[in-house]
Amino acid sequence: MTKKSSATAEGQGEPGAGKPDFAGAPANAALSAEQRIHLYRVMVRIRRFEERSLRAYQAKKIGGFLHLYIGQEAVAVGCCSLMGKDDHVITAYRDHGHAIAVGMEMNPLMAELYGKATGCSKGKGGSMHFFDPARNFWGGHGVVGGQVPLGIGLAYALKYRELGGSCMTFMGDGAVNQGAVHEAYNLAALWELPVVFIIENNGYSMGTSQARSSAGELGRRAEAYGMAWGVCDGHDLYEVRAFMDRFLDMARTKSKPSLVELRTYRYRGHSVADPDKTYRAKAEVEEYRRTKDPIQVFQNELIAGQVMDVALAEKIDAEARSEADLAADFAEASPFPAVSDIQKDVYWEADNPSQRKSGGRLFFN
Amino acid sequence: MPVIQYREAIRQALSEELTRDPNVVVMGEEVGQFNGAYKVTEGLLEKFGPKRIVDTPISEAGFTGLGIGASMLGVRPVVELMFWSFYSVCFDQILNNAANLRYMSGGQIQCPIVIRGPANGGTNVGATHSHTPENILASHPGVKVVVPATPYDAKGLLKSAIRDNDPVMYLENTILYGDKGEVPAGEYLIPLGSADTKREGTDLSIISYGRAAIQSLAAAHLLQQEHNISAEVVDLRSIRPLDMDAVLASVRKTHRALVVEEQKPFCGVGAQLAFMIQSEAFDELDAPIARLSTIDGPSIYSPPVENEQLPNPQRIVRAAVDMLD
Question: Chain A partners of B64 at a C-beta cutoff of 8 Å?
Fold first, then answer.
């Protein structure tokens, strides 16, 4: 195939070429030991949070769906650790990892899962709908692909207001066949919006494998829109950071959109309700866990690089477990919202009655 | 006072708000270079430039979603749908995102977006282009729904809608675009949720909105001339918030209520109104509440028959006369 376009394939990995020095890439070389350990700690905290929430779910403390991020930690932490003041994040329903990666505390997250008034959304959103605009985190969206137009809207606002910055718009590999996603690709490329579309490709669109749901390469679809694109393994945190750095820079400094595919894996089912027996082999999960687990990979790198020792890794792990347990205690002890709270946070005007300009009834019972 | 068209009144509102607030952006299909599919935005591109008046591809889910996302971060988009009938291809963005984001974030996010365009039958464009989704929109807590009937109302309501911090769905009417009326040259606002009694009467209250309110006024004239019936016409102007006090005040005065709507009857705005009137003014009623809706079927193309499918003055007169018999 001959082509001349702005599309560039990146980091596809050349067989036999040996692993490049991602730790020495510009995005990583300047990291202090403390910063490297912090990144490790965030990944561990995500995993322990997820495991604790699973136990709470099994104990029927949590309603609805629970989509766990276990196995994908290097993606959210790698990407979100590159955020500057005007970089924004929006994602789909598997959002716990991103929430912790942008700096949200475990207590309000766990309380949200428990449906408590102390939750990050006051118990009104649940697992799929975590938000923290003060940390540039815009959710947490339940409908597959529905957040992608919102992501380009955030990027549009950044450009319109000349703020610089970027919007990382995450989606799963199951979202790429939604029409709204393609509409967003087109608008982003047409209007040169500072967005990085990030496909977190865990191989399965719920229970349907990529091979059974998507034609062609997911990233390559960017070529049709004249967008830069690339593919990267998403289990090595250094690699994710090294890879994402230049796409983010392109968004921030040139206001050029791009589409990246980060190959990752989830150990758990699509949601906890997923029997996870019909569409993939246990051995596949075990193989990933054994060879590519993002926490183990990064721990090995930090230990080999003498940034961290096993004792510190164990300490970090114990602290994360304890933090998650305490979050569950906090959630348990917190009150549920009142029935009277159902009609709060619906309309800005209803919540700010002294500034209300409209008349008439906003609610009908 | 200047007499201008309904479309010009909307354009004045847009122009004044674009001038007032640099974060207001008008976007939609053909709003700029083409001067608007219905010439509502004519001249705005020349006046405000392409940063403020943005032509979009035919991509309703994409650009309404973009507008909602931009509204979360300080832009105040006014998104035009060439027809409100196309709400069905961006339903997820409007009613999952704009309507719910404030709620699902526990009040952390607001979406000050206006989505506007025409929503009406009567132009022989068939079932796909003749939807009137005000009931469907209004059944989603979190959005506001406005349906102006006159040039004066169109301008004052749109200016309020653009300044509103909640998402406002603003439903116009292609048949009304050329209607003329008095509109002050200067600044004025009409608050959302305030009905307007457009004709005083004593024998029955016709409660309506949008073009059906204009037709109700014509019917009230005929009722007076031909049947000696004095009909009061209450124009809701806004479906959500809803000025129920004005409706109840009129019913308490006339003791009869006829609801007229360009809606299919099943779960239409009129059904909600009828329930509320009986619930809150039962003892005031001297007759069962009557309701005139669009005849229940997909919107027919055939021009003379479509006119009979929709509310029209003759149908309204018959309904009123039947009620008083």
Answer: 149
